[in-house]
Design brief:
Chain lengths: 199, 199
């Protein structure tokens, strides 16, 4: 059996190593880039190089930014009394899309996970505590993912913050808007009943 | 609304421009490469550069290869009297996986498609005709895709070959092995009945 040419095989392997890219998709991507123009290919490569060179963590909130301090932390229009703590820069984008929250963020870059050897000092908890000393913060909203590790991280951090006299809250649990109750899992339904509101 | 940092946004756009990569997958890939090691990133980039620099069409069959003549065309073990004509280098791999066909190939790199401005001279038909003069070919198997354009291309090429006194055949149409007849489309069933064999 003959395989692809060695350099093509290597390119396919490179793509297949990326997350969520299977062998078939890797083949399609490889063939696409081989057939693409020089300019397009160089643009693709330089976008990788530039992102890696320019991106770093905001010195305040640890979100990824090209600047020293990210646009949210340096905006005069944000409510500087609230910090929403999230796991990942993508979560910041998710909240920003709501156009409702106008406070600050703090990106942990992970969750505490003994199974994966991630200790509290491996994520940006220290940087959050520094902010609570420096700034005029009234409330911290824990918005880690509703998973076992996300919740454990949330509880761990809230225990560190409470002695500082700052209010700590967490996202409400309940049924997602537009969902079909028939397909909701039991844990979500239990939380939804526990958190029920008078109408 | 705040977006991702500009250089991150640019990297996500680069990935999202690739075929079959949606915005969410592009985000995942971008975050992965930002977090990856320098060595892994450089390896990824050099695999793109190398593939583009080394790969070209085999001077005989037009398949993609790193060599002047591809391993199949230069193999002494292949049957040099049959050429299987396919649209794409991936089709060669598909046939090779069967371990049954031991003839030669010819890769057209596309199909005739007036809708997409692809004329007969835009695909490797000329190179195929040259081979038929030079070599001791007894049969050409048309193995373009069973689509309207694939069939039209197949008929166009067979009309060019027949005057040369070379046998031209095409792949059998029928129900795929292991398929459920209930879900077979009517055209496939018609072809399967037409091509029925005595058992």
């Amino acid at each position: 059996m003959t395989d692809f040419a060695p350099s093509l095989e290597k390119l396919i392997d490179s793509f297949a190593r990326l997350p969520s890219i299977g062998r078939k998709t890797a083949q399609r991507l490889a063939f696409y880039l081989i057939g693409a123009g020089d300019e397009e290919t160089e643009k693709f490569i330089s976008s990788i190089r530039e992102a890696r060179a320019n991106l770093h963590r905001c010195s305040v909130c640890c979100n990824l930014t090209d600047d020293e301090v990210c646009p949210i932390c340096s905006s005069p229009e944000r409510d500087r009394s609230v910090i929403c703590v999230v796991e990942d820069p993508r979560d910041v984008i998710a909240f920003e899309k709501t156009h409702e929250y106008d406070g600050l963020y703090h990106v942990l870059h992970g969750v505490i996970s003994p199974m994966n050897d991630v200790d509290p000092e491996d994520i940006c908890i220290k940087e959050l505590l520094v902010r609570l000393n420096d700034e005029n913060i009234k409330e911290v909203i824990m918005a880690t993912n509703p998973t076992v590790e996300g919740e454990a991280t949330s509880i761990y951090i809230s225990k560190l913050i409470k002695p500082l006299g700052i209010k700590v809250s967490r996202l409400a649990y309940g049924v997602p808007v537009g969902a079909d109750l028939e397909y909701a899992d039991e844990f979500t339904l239990i939380r939804a009943i526990e958190g029920r509101k008078t109408i």
